[in-house]
Amino acid sequence: MKVSMAKSSKYTSKQPDENGVIAWSDEENKIWSELVARQLQCIEGKACDEYMDGLKKINLPHDRIPQLSELNEVLGQETGWQVAPVPALIDFDEFFRLLANKQFPVATFIRSREEFDYLQEPDVFHEIFGHCAMLTNPAFAEFTHKYGQLGYAAEKKDRGYLARLYWFTVEFGLMQTKDGLRIYGGGVLSSPGETQYVYSGTPEIQPLDVSDVLRTPYRIDIMQPIYYTINSINDLFDISQMDIMSLVAKAKELGLFEPKFPPKQKLAS
Fold first, then answer.
1. Considering the entire predicted model, what is its pTM?
2. Residue ranges of the Biopterin-dependent aromatic amino acid hydroxylase family profile domain (predicted)?
């Protein structure tokens, strides 16, 4: 999710020039190239067909970080979406505002080599490789748009519930298909560790019920103890047509489920 829980980031997004072009260094392009090569191998036979189809459409370069204008050309034609450059951290207001306007926020920095394997903040690799292919799919795109509209209009106390819906779909969503379990969530698709972990037999995997998802706590800094599955990408379109805010109201009444993870250790002061 674009909204980091961290108070600050050591990364700074790169600013596009007057033509919208971002000047990436040779080393940054090399990191991108290595990340793409590794993850393409990792998701083989695990990513859903809609993601693989979208990947062909956006035609990601493997040797360099794409310019946002290249992505916008394809996304605009397919679903009317665009990607928008944002700082390393943005707040909920801006996050929901962008989604409500069919703009997907992309933090324009790439992880350092020291954090090659794991990065808490979402970088340009996570945003583009993880999410942009799915945004070519009309059902996924409509779900994300409706989610942004709901979130932008929602009160602050309701946004935490909505965040869980995004987390267990757009970020960590799985799909049961005729060929078995497949991934559509960008948080899994952009992470080699999480991709393999999904198939390890360790996490709990349950059919997605919106009311359950709204009540399921999560942590951003661990492997997920539970994932939720849909049966078709069209299930997301069906969810987008529900009265989600009435489900949020019910979830607030019922309260959250017990977390399936230990509490975060507090650092000694």
1. 0.94
2. 1-269
130-165 burial, b if ≥16 CB within 10 A, otherwise e?
bbbbbbbbebbbbbbbbbbebbbebeeebbebbbbb
Helix (H, G, I), strand (E, B) or coil at 177: strand
Sign (positive/negative) of CA torsion 61, 65, 71, 72?
A: negative
Here the tokens at position 169 are: 């779909």
* Amino acid 7: pLDDT: 61
Residue 224: CB atoms within 10 A of its CB come to: 25
Phi–psi pair at 82, nearest 5 degrees: -140, 160
Report percent pLDDT > 70 for the chain: 96
Give the separation between CA 69 and CA 141, rounded to whole angstroms.
18
Question: How far is Cα of residue 2 from the mean position of the Cα atoms in its chain?
Answer: 8
Task: HSE, CB side, 13 Å, CA atoms: give it for residue 44.
Answer: 6
Q: Please enumerate, as own/partner, the contacts of 7-14 that have beta carbons within 8 Å and a separation of 24 or more.
A: 8/89, 9/88, 9/89, 9/121, 11/88, 11/107, 11/109, 11/111, 11/121, 11/123, 12/87, 12/88, 12/109, 13/85, 13/86, 13/87, 13/88, 13/107, 13/108, 13/109, 14/108, 14/109
3-state secondary structure of 263: coil
Task: Read off the tokens for 2.
Answer: 């674009």
For residue 188, how many C-alpha atoms fall within 13 Å in the half-sphere facing its CB? 31
Euclidean distance between CA atoms 269 and 253, whole angstroms = 36
- 103-107 vs 82-86, strand pairing mode: parallel
